[in-house]
Write a structure and sequence with these properties.
2 domains; 33% helix; 11 strands; six-stranded mixed β-sheet; globular; binds flavin-adenine dinucleotide; 319 residues; FAD/NAD(P)-binding domain; 9 helices; alpha/beta
């Protein structure tokens, strides 16, 4: 992917919003949901790019009984999804958490269909990882975003975090395409037709100034496009430093941009969506494996566990 200029950042300042979102990966969805309810929100992002690990991911999402699955007449239900999650999680985490995920998945996808230009499809045949478990589905529930035209980001295009791999060709390849490409020796017609279709889409798109991307690039760009359309401000190169409390309630956060601290008051809450601790080697050795070496994570470099640590500082529970 060609290197692009990153637009100038918005200077951070003291302000008050309804919802403050820390991290511009999936956190963008929280801001979109708040915006739909008429709440003001602000997204702050530590790095110069928007997208986080989401922009580097495969972009395949698993949400039972979501509207895409319903439209495809898969027959999936919330109850089956709950049964499956409960069976796979098998008591290692509170049941309410799994249920909350399943119960709100469909509405989350519907919200994204309303608030972003993304178009989703069911990756039929992308099996659940444990289809033999109660509620499991061998035909799968995974969905993806159709190739997304990054030109829709306009001047903000350069702020989208680049993907991990550069195919060297304009060829927006979805996970569902990879399946047939991998099976090319067995089913050459399907394999070649996928390659041809995506190459044609990529090349023809460029001819009319459309830059198609798939996978996590498409999801992150789609979320970002929704955020831009809704005029939700995003302050990049701005980090959460600490949370502000009034009694037991979090009322805002202190942020840092270019060595300068500002305070944002959040009337309705602060969403911590600052990713995991992919690049904190001390924690990775402690909680994962001592054999891990630096740089072995494909996650975005800003993910150093900040929000987890800052949450713990004020007594938040982690599990
Ligand atoms: C190569 C790869 C492929 C994957 N494929 C899939 C897949 O197909 N399907 C799937 O479900 N999952 C997949 N995953 C996992 C998935 O991408 C992540 O679980 C998900 O993107 C995490 O989203 P997030 O919003 O929590 O974090 P992120 O998307 O990483 O966003 C967090 C953001 O917070 C920012 N941040 C960090 N600290 C601060 C701070 N102090 N202040 C402000 N901002 C901060 C970071 O810079 C980052 O931009 C994949 C992951 C990788 C790496």
């Amino acid at each position: 992917m060609a290197k692009r200029a990153v637009p100038p950042l918005t200077p951070a300042r003291d302000t008050t919003v309804d919802l403050l979102v820390i991290g511009a990966g999936t956190g963008m969805a929280a801001a979109l949901a708040a915006n739909e309810r008429g709440l003001s929100s602000l997204i702050v992002e530590k790095t110069k790019y928007v997208g986080g690990s989401t922009a580097r991911s495969g972009g395949a999402f698993w949400m039972p009984a979501n509207p895409v699955l319903t439209e495809a007449r898969t027959g999936d239900t919330v109850e089956r999804g709950r049964t499956y999650v409960r069976s796979v999680v098998d008591g290692t985490a509170p049941v309410e958490r799994g249920d909350a995920f399943v119960d709100n998945g469909a509405e989350t996808v519907a919200m994204l269909q309303r608030t972003t230009p993304m178009k989703f499809f069911w990756a039929k045949g992308y099996s659940d990882y444990h289809p033999e478990r109660p509620g499991g589905a061998a035909v799968g529930r995974t969905c993806e975003c159709r190739p997304f035209n990054l030109s829709q980001l306009g001047e903000e295009r350069g702020r989208l975090r680049p993907g991990l791999m550069d195919a060297g060709l304009p060829m927006p390849t979805t996970g569902a395409d990879y399946k047939w490409m991998n099976l090319m020796v067995r089913t050459p017609v399907k394999g070649f037709s996928r390659i041809f279709r995506r190459l044609a889409q990529g090349v023809a798109g460029l001819a009319v100034k459309r830059e198609y991307a798939a996978g996590g690039q498409a999801i992150a760009a789609g979320l970002f496009a929704g955020v831009l359309n809704a005029n939700i401000p995003v302050w990049t190169e701005t980090s959460l430093v600490r949370l502000v409390k009034d009694g037991d309630r979090v009322t805002g956060a202190v942020l840092e941009q270019n060595g300068r601290e500002v305070t944002v008051t959040a009337r309705r809450g602060v969403v911590l969506a600052a990713g995991g601790f992919d690049h904190d080697m001390e924690w990775r050795h402690k909680f994962q494996s001592e054999s891990l070496a630096d740089g072995e994570s494909l996650g975005a470099e800003g993910n150093t566990g900040d929000a987890i640590k800052i949450g713990q500082e004020i007594g938040a529970g982690v599990d």
